[in-house]
Design a protein that fits this description.
Layout lengths: L5 E12 L2 E13 L4 E5 L6 H8 L7 E6 L2 E2 L5 H11 E4 L13 H11 L9 H5 L14 H14 L4 E5 L7 H16 L3 E6 L2 H6 L2 E6 L2 E6 L1
Parallel strand pairs: 3-8, 3-9, 6-7, 7-8
Antiparallel strand pairs: 1-2, 1-4, 4-5, 9-10
C-alpha cells in the first residue's frame, strides 16, 4: 500500500485571542493519499481552512502529529518549513486576484511562479491545457474570474509540486466557470499531483476521491 502524502494524528489547533484560547481544530486524524482529490468538506467555521494552513506549513498545530511523506513536520524550523513549502507545496486561494500578480501578463505570471520554485519556466503548452490558449500576452485584468482561477491552478502546476492546496476555489465563481475549474482540478489530479481542497461546494465534493467531513473542528466522517 502506498505511503500517504500526509498523516494527521490527534491534531489540535488553538488560537490565542484577547479573551482566551479558542480551539479551531480538536483531535483530528486522517490521511491524505499521494494522488487524487481529497476534499475537506464542511460549513464555515468547521476547521477546513485551518487544516489547509497546517498542511501548507503556514500555521503550526498545537498538539498531535502531522507527517509529510513520513517526516514529522512539527519540529521543523522556519527555514526548513519555508524550503518545504517552496519545493513541495502550491496554494490556490479563494479569490482569483489573490493568486496572481495583477500588473504582469499571463505568461509572466506562469514564469514567475515556476521560478519561485526554482524552475526555469512553465511548460509552453500549459495555456492549452488550462483551456485559455492564446492569452499569454494578456494582462491578468483582461481575464474573467473563472479564467483567472484556472490560471492560478496553472501557476500552481508550474511549480511542479507534490500537492496543491485549494481553499474554496469555486466559491466566487458562477456555475459555468466553476465547472471549468473543476475540470482543471480533475486533470491536475490525473497528472499525478495530489490535490487537497477545502470546500462546501457539493459539485467539488462529488469529484473528490476522498472526502473528510468536518464540523466544529472535528472529523464527522470519511469516504473514499
Amino acid at each position: 500500500m502506498a505511503e500517504p502524502l500526509y498523516e494527521l494524528r490527534g491534531v489540535h489547533v488553538d488560537y490565542r485571542t484577547p479573551t482566551g484560547v479558542v480551539p479551531a481544530v480538536s483531535d483530528v486524524s486522517f490521511d491524505v493519499p499521494a494522488d487524487g482529490i481529497t476534499v475537506l468538506a464542511g460549513p464555515s467555521g468547521s476547521g477546513k481552512s485551518t487544516l489547509l494552513r497546517v498542511l501548507g506549513l503556514v500555521d503550526r498545530h498545537t498538539a498531535g502529529t502531522v507527517r509529510l511523506q513520513g517526516r514529522d513536520v512539527g519540529g521543523l524550523g522556519h527555514r526548513a518549513r519555508r524550503q518545504t513549502r517552496r519545493d513541495r507545496i502550491a496554494v490556490v486561494f479563494q479569490a482569483p486576484p489573490d493568486n496572481l500578480i495583477g500588473h504582469l501578463t499571463v505568461a509572466q505570471n506562469l514564469r514567475a511562479s515556476a521560478q519561485s520554485a526554482g524552475r526555469a519556466d512553465a511548460d509552453p503548452d500549459i495555456l492549452d491545457w488550462l483551456g485559455i490558449p492564446g492569452t499569454g500576452s494578456w494582462r491578468v485584468a483582461a481575464l474573467s474570474g473563472g479564467q483567472q482561477q484556472r490560471l492560478a491552478f496553472g501557476c500552481a502546476l508550474a511549480r511542479e509540486p507534490d500537492v496543491v492546496l485549494a481553499d474554496e476555489p469555486t466559491s466566487q465563481l458562477d456555475a459555468a466557470s466553476a465547472a471549468l475549474v473543476l475540470d482543471v482540478l480533475g486533470r491536475l489530479a490525473d497528472s499525478g499531483v495530489a490535490v487537497v481542497a477545502a470546500s462546501h461546494d457539493p459539485d467539488l465534493v462529488a469529484i473528490g476521491t476522498r472526502v473528510v467531513r468536518l464540523r466544529e473542528g472535528r472529523v464527522q466522517g470519511e469516504a473514499a
